[in-house]
Specification:
Elements (H helix, E strand, L loop, with lengths): L1 H23 L4 H25 L1 H6 L9 H27 L2 H8 L2 H13 L5 H22 L9 H26 L4 H23 L4 H6 L4 H21 L6 H8 L3 H11 L5 H19 L2
């Protein structure tokens, strides 16, 4: 069951990435990020209020936000710090790079998660899983060569380093999620609500220093409907992902890989919508990534 929940998370993440590309294109990145997190918080706020005043009803429908100790709040705040940094890097990279380059680099995230799962959680991969991850990493390298044909130098372009940093931090957060969900026994909606709140506060501080005092930057920001879509789709993806992690048998290394199937939506549909270059050549490493995911799921 947890694998199917992972596939649902991948579906919403793929749609989320398409909307995110539209939201940041020729736009100020940080207020877009603030808007998406703010939308997510507003989606979860009625559930929090309902859990306070109608706890039995929200327990019955499975959306109760539980009370948690101060120490647990600290652990969630750490996750918010990690992901706020990752998103800031990723949103800036997405603004300056084609989605068909950004998404495949992000697909290397399972490799970092894979190593962490072995070292931290003692998850043991099979031979086919090793082959699957090798295929994914090899395909990402092939994407880098294709990216050079679009004028993107992977050794000198700072946005490439930004998306690699975002990918590493995102993978670290994925490993941390297993600890939050399974060791601290947090339910998805409780983790999502407090995570959104703390991330929102962090971003408000960042924007208060870098964006709000700058009139020129404020004028460059354009509100788009996709900002709302990004916030809603992200919460849907996170909910199914956290639900999958609640299963004691769920392996974070496999869930991380399953989520990468979102790349099919980003590369195929995104390439058509945003009219990016070399779509046919990018299908070759795309097949490699999908084959790697298939081997992991069927080993």
């Amino acid at each position: 069951m947890w694998m199917y929940l992972g596939l649902l998370a991948a579906l919403f993440l793929g749609l989320h990435n398409l909307c995110k590309k539209h939201a940041v294109q020729k736009n100020e990145v940080l207020p877009v990020l603030l808007g998406t997190i703010g939308v997510g918080f507003l989606v979860l706020l009625p559930i929090f209020i309902g859990s306070l005043y109608f706890p039995e009803y929200f327990k019955q429908i499975g959306f109760h936000i539980t009370s948690i100790p101060l120490e647990t709040h600290g652990f969630i705040f750490i996750k918010s710090m990690i992901m706020a940094t990752s998103w800031i890097l990723a949103f800036h990279a997405l603004k300056h790079l084609p989605i068909t380059i950004v998404t495949p680099i992000r697909s290397a995230g399972p490799f970092f998660t894979f190593i962490g799962a072995i070292l931290i959680y003692q998850e043991r991969p099979t031979f086919l899983q090793w082959i699957g991850f090798s295929l994914i990493i090899s395909s990402v390298v092939l994407y880098s060569k294709i990216g050079k044909k679009e004028g993107i130098n992977f050794k000198r372009n700072k946005w490439i380093f930004a998306i690699i940093g975002a990918t590493f931090l995102g993978a670290s957060s994925g490993l941390y999620d297993k600890f939050l969900i399974q060791s601290l026994t947090l339910n998805p909606q409780t983790l999502q609500f407090w995570f959104c709140l703390y991330t929102l506060l962090i971003l408000l501080v960042v924007l208060g220093i870098t964006w709000f005092p700058n009139p020129e930057k404020r004028k460059k920001f354009t509100w788009r409907w996709t900002i709302i879509a990004v916030g809603i789709l992200l919460q849907a993806a996170d909910y199914f992902y956290f639900k999958a992690l609640q299963d004691p048998e769920a392996l974070i290394m496999l869930l991380s890989a399953i989520k990468r199937s979102q790349i099919l939506i980003a590369v195929v549909i995104g390439g058509l919508v945003f009219k990016e270059k070399n779509k046919r050549k990018k299908l070759i490493p795309l097949i490699g990534i999908m084959l790697g995911v298939f081997l992991i799921l069927n080993s």
